[in-house]
Amino acid sequence: MILNVDQGINRYYVQTLCMVFFPGAKFSLDEEATPDTPVITVHSSSDGENVTASVTISVGEISVTAEDTRPKKSAVKINAEKVAIGAAFLKAGKLIFNYTPAWGILTGVRPSKLAMDLMTKDKMSMKEIRQVLTKQYFLNPKKASLVMSVAEREMSILDGFDRENTCSVYISIPFCPSRCNYCSFVSYSTPRLLSLIPDYIDMLCRDIDETFRVIKSTGKKVSCVYIGGGTPSILAPDQIARILDRIAAHVSPKSLAEFSFEAGRPDTITREKIKVLKQHGVGRISVNPQTLNDVVLETIGRGHTAADFYRAYDIARRCGIECINTDVIVGLPGESFASLARTVDAILQLSPENITFHTFCVKRAADIVKTDRSVYSRQGGSVGKCVDYAQLKAKLAGYEPYYMYRQKNTVGNFENVGYARDGYDGLYNVFMMEEIHSIFAVGAGGVTKLVNADGTDIKRVAAPKYPYEYLDPEIHEKAMRDILGAAEEFFSGADTQ
Known about the structure:
Layout: E1 2-5, H1 11-21, E2 39-46, E3 50-59, E4 62-71, H2 80-97, H3 111-120, H4 126-136, H5 141-158, E5 166-173, H6 191-194, H7 197-218, E6 221-229, H8 237-248, E7 258-264, H9 271-279, E8 284-287, H10 294-299, H11 306-318, E9 323-330, H12 337-350, E10 354-359, H13 367-371, H14 383-396, E11 400-405, E12 416-420, H15 427-433, E13 438-442, E14 447-451, E15 458-462, H16 467-470, H17 473-496
Parallel strand pairs: 1-2, 5-6, 5-13, 6-7, 7-8, 8-9, 9-10
Antiparallel strand pairs: 2-3, 3-4, 10-12, 11-12, 14-15
């Protein structure tokens, strides 16, 4: 794709709009045009009081141009140029594709943050917020209602929460029994890489000790511990116990607001492993079917069946795990509306405490893209209907949306939403997504996110991405020095201000 953008216009913002209409688009400043290369041209001008934007979309022999004008001053603190560009883009996109995205021009990972800011900083009523979402960002009414519902729920969760003196810890287990063909996470499944697990756990336990030492020096209390991956349940029971024992040496599970273990793949879950989790105070686990359609599971290389999911779920329930989360992916290749509806209905019948509905996201590094680029989908076919069905049925079953996020290149540009029963909101998800407090990450691929008391200053420090880098003594030592040194400096500086 070729972008011709006036100097001064936020090029990245224009790219996010492009991906709504051209999912999977790649951007290069030196790309040479072919007859089929989309060309986007964006102009902006101002007369002092108004901003006028012009967007031209050219695809092959078809070319359309649309304009929009917005006042520079308004009651809402909103970038008039961005709105004008977005509105012109929507008009041009509708002309050429006959498609209006449900999320309008609202891009970015955290849509509920906008609503929360309008509630808390601008003191707007729900009616006024709805007007901003639908008239300024062009959300359809259903998405506007969803954003406001999530924002209200998050605010109730965070009411009175001590963000200044708390933090959470993420522990990375980047190994899987096999790689799903839609996956792009840092996870490893070949026998050679799986052989690294014993050494990885040795290093991880040492880093857990060091990380908690630094946390203690800051005076912060750990609210949540989240063990994710990859597939943490790929570990043997004694390996899981060893990690949990190291955590328990620094913080009592009973003192945590939430202790989560993302078991994930049902084919890795055994009674022995779940018993270890229960004995060590883990209160929340994920058992993720993605779909209960065995044909689709095989197509995506998931490596388990629906029967495996039911078996794993039953083990978790019988072992007394207090909160079970299940993940469902809407829009998987080969999944029909009827098939997705059967999955949703069957999982709701089990009555897990959490359900997360993800929209299938097409990552460039995923194996499936190498063989089938048709998985990129602008309008998503029946996916919008599937998303609506899943969310409506969850609400009717007594669940409420408590957090959400969006990703680039999701099928139909739809969202990911977590639903929970009262009292079972996934706290770590909210703290992490809304950047409520610092998250200390331990292990390969983890990113430590340091957040000051009012959320105005955020610093990210990444660990080595790959397990073999993480286990390299020189690389590892430097990374840990950078991460823990940054944390000590970040919070010592806050204390002196």
